[in-house]
């Protein structure tokens, strides 16, 4: 257990620096990385070659993540600079200008849809700056986008956390199907809590009645996503629940808000200066191109395989196979790039406007890039720590084994927290599953628990852990222009993580 406590040190430092001390992440991230490096060298005895290899892997991931944020922000800033975002704003404002409704429409429905087709932190990167553009404070926008994203994550990127994350377990089809169904059932039951918490964040600092009167609409929003999400998971599998759930939720939320359904005092026809229909349709074209291309790339299997086959890998470094590679035609930044190219051509963007968009984008990226560089380096060092001269398991494995041993017979109650720990460390539900799914399966076997139930808890935890991952927070905060407030975001998102993980454990016991 000594190793377990030692491995916790970097994360305790990170948490203390960000939350109780309220220091910015660009200070906390280097300190956490340095602590991890000391442990890796002195205790795990990793070689200089392994260390450099982890940095090379980190550089590849950093480039990929930075390109996603860069392209997303460039699209939005070009749209703003050309005035076409105001056309989209007029359409959304005609539905509602209420920040609570916008939280449901963009932070819940849109985020779920984008998570389903893209993943990789893309939903919060897109939704958070949109919410800011529509007048929401950046802190609220980032927290709402991260919280709203959690339910869709287990089936994000066309089911990648299941398809790739569980690939090494050798599961039969029925076990996988049962795990997917249980995940969807539990998330659907808990979805109203997620939407209610999002509304609570949106109404912070406002009259209490603003939250209470919106409860019925928040529950409607939860069901509008959760019911199709559950049905598709049951009838189809892990590839489409988030995509279909997001589309249905956006349609139901928009229609209900426009008609004032479950919205006391709602104006049936708000006075909004609407842009001409042709300009509105034109404004949506870049996003439509991106959405169609993304859906095709994820659902048309021959196309998907062809795009994934175009891959650049650095190969080996002094006999160590580098684990990261770039798939430029499959990763979300390519599809944001398509949207950007469409906007540049369609709107005939001038050099001056493009220059202003680039300057605005760089202004938001500078600090986020520092945080991301150190957090990604820390993540890759954790993953590489299994290659050591001390004969020890990797640091994440030590953490997982320590938790499993400590919890014993109560493991099922806290199993989801292990999945959340994986996402907190790596910023990826898929990587969390790769790290801990086998440990979850072994523990379930030792304790005589149903394997699908424990895997469902791993999926749920891996999803909600994205809310508190500094990797994802830094991406969303950078896109929304929120700087040095990462600890406050964690203070807003830690409660739903705890409630969902405990709630999932209780529901699993009753399964």
From TrEMBL:
Entry superkingdom: Bacteria
Entry keyword Oxidoreductase: no
Keyword Transmembrane in annotation: yes
Principal location: membrane
Name of the protein in its database record: L-lactate permease
Organism in which the protein naturally occurs: Thioalkalivibrio versutus
TM segment ranges: 28-46, 58-81, 101-134, 141-167, 179-202, 214-236, 242-261, 281-301, 330-347, 367-391, 411-437, 449-473, 493-510
Family of the protein in this entry: Belongs to the lactate permease family.
GO cellular component: plasma membrane
GO MF entry, a single one: lactate transmembrane transporter activity
Subcellular location field: Cell inner membrane; Cell membrane
InterPro entries with a match to the protein in the record: Lactate_perm
Function: Uptake of L-lactate across the membrane. Can also transport D-lactate and glycolate.
Alphabetized UniProt keyword annotations: Cell inner membrane, Cell membrane, Membrane, Transmembrane, Transmembrane helix, Transport
UniProt membrane topology term: Multi-pass membrane protein
């Amino acid at each position: 257990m000594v190793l377990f406590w030692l491995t916790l040190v970097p994360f305790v430092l990170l948490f203390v620096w960000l939350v109780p001390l309220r220091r910015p992440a660009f200070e906390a991230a280097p300190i956490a990385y340095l602590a991890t490096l000391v442990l890796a060298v002195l205790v795990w005895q990793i070689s200089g070659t392994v260390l450099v290899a982890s940095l090379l892997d980190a550089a590849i991931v950093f480039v990929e993540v930075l390109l996603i944020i860069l392209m997303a922000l460039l699209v939005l800033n070009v749209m703003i600079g050309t005035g076409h975002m105001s056309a989209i704003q007029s359409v959304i404002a005609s539905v509602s200008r209420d920040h609570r409704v916008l939280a449901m429409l963009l932070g819940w429905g849109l985020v779920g849809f984008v998570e389903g087709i893209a993943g990789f932190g893309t939903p919060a990167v897109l939704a958070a700056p949109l919410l800011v553009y529509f007048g929401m404070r950046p802190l609220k926008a980032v927290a709402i986008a991260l919280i709203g994203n959690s339910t869709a994550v287990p089936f994000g990127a066309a089911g990648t956390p299941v398809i790739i994350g569980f690939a090494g377990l050798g599961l039969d089809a029925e076990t996988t199907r049962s795990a997917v169904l249980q995940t969807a059932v539990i998330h659907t039951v808990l979805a109203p809590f997620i939407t209610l918490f999002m509304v609570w964040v949106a109404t912070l600092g406002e009259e209490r009645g603003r939250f209470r009167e919106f409860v019925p609409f928040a529950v409607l929003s939860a069901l509008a996503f959760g019911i199709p999400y559950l049905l598709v998971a049951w009838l189809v599998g892990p590839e489409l629940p988030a995509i279909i759930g997001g589309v249905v939720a956006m349609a139901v939320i928009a229609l209900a808000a426009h008609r004032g359904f479950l919205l006391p005092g709602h104006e049936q026809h708000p006075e909004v200066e609407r842009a001409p229909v042709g300009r509105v349709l034109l404004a949506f074209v870049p996003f439509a191109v991106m959405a169609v291309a993304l859906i095709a790339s994820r659902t048309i299997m021959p196309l998907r395989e062809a795009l994934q086959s175009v891959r650049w890998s650095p190969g080996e470094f002094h006999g160590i196979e580098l684990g990261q590679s770039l798939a430029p035609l499959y990763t979300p930044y390519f599809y944001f790039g398509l949207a950007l190219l469409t906007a540049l051509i369609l709107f005939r963007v001038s050099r001056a406007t493009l220059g202003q968009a680039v300057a605005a984008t760089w202004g938001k990226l500078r600090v986020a890039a520092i945080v991301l560089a150190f957090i990604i380096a820390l993540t890759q060092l954790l993953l590489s720590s299994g290659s050591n001269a001390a004969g020890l398991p990797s640091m994440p494995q030590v953490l997982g084994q320590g938790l499993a041993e400590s919890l014993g017979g109560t493991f099922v109650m806290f199993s989801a927290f292990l999945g959340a720990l994986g996402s907190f460390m790596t910023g990826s539900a898929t990587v969390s599953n790769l790290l801990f799914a086998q440990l979850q399966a072994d523990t379930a076997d030792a304790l005589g628990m149903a394997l699908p139930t424990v895997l469902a808890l791993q999926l749920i935890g891996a999803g909600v852990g994205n809310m508190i991952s500094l990797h994802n927070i830094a991406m969303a905060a950078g896109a929304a222009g929120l700087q040095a407030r990462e600890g406050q975001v964690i203070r807003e998102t830690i409660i739903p993580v705890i409630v969902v993980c405990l709630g999932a454990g209780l529901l699993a016991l009753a399964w």
